[in-house]
Specification:
Strand content: under 5%
Distance between the termini: 63 Å
Largest sheet: 2 strands, antiparallel
Order of helices and strands: HHHHHHEEHH
Number of strands: 2
Length: 202
């Protein structure tokens, strides 16, 4: 009921605003999600652009979108599941969205871009728990009125903020440089050609 309630509270105004914007743009009332369904699912015209395996989003899109952050995303979702229904709500929405998009034969990871904020939220939950985790056991201390309170955690931190940041930089920066400057860089090089053509008047 929690997800249904907030879907109505947030979703209905969002859909109404979307309809209004599309009415202004198309000069008629349209419902793009329904058009998406007709084109991609009912008529199956998405196959013009290629077909993907049913689990494409699971083992291709998710690793591409979250890269080395994916273990933190999964760990954070697990922690949220352990905490109760409220914390796991966004994960349910994300899985449902991925399932719906998997019904379309043609799949691309960019279709799941809206799920990035949800995934990063769970990654933050995971990183926050790991930074606070320590090796060793808890050692009970005397009550508060005796001058000490709570439990003392023996051992050193399993993770530090610096180690996590270093891990993310080492695993993402080289890949981002390669994918942006080397891999399929034809779209970048062609701009210099087009600029030269425009400047020469051709």
């Amino acid at each position: 009921m929690y997800i249904v309630k907030w879907t109505l509270v947030v979703g209905l105004p969002a859909v109404a605003f979307m309809l209004l914007i599309d009415r202004l743009g198309y000069k008629r009332w349209v419902f793009p999600p329904y058009q998406f369904y007709l084109f991609n699912v009912h008529e199956g015209l998405a196959t013009w652009f290629g077909e993907s395996p049913p689990l494409y989003h699971l083992y291709v899109s998710m690793p591409i979108l979250f890269t080395s952050m994916l273990p933190f995303v999964l760990h954070g979702a697990y922690l949220a599941f352990a905490r109760g229904k409220t914390a796991v709500g966004p994960a349910v929405v994300a899985v449902a969205a991925m399932f719906v998009f998997s019904m379309v034969p043609h799949m691309e990871y960019r279709f799941l871009y809206p799920l990035l904020p949800i995934g990063f939220m769970y990654a933050a939950v995971s990183i926050n728990s790991l930074v606070g985790a320590r090796s060793g056991n808890l050692e009970k201390r005397p009550p508060k009125n005796s001058g000490n309170a709570g439990a003392r955690i023996k051992g050193r931190r399993l993770w530090s903020t610096r180690s996590i940041v270093a891990y993310l930089l080492v695993t993402n920066v080289p890949a981002s440089l390669y994918l942006n400057l080397v891999h399929q860089r034809g779209v970048i090089d062609v701009m210099a050609y087009l600029r030269a053509e425009a400047q020469s008047g051709h």
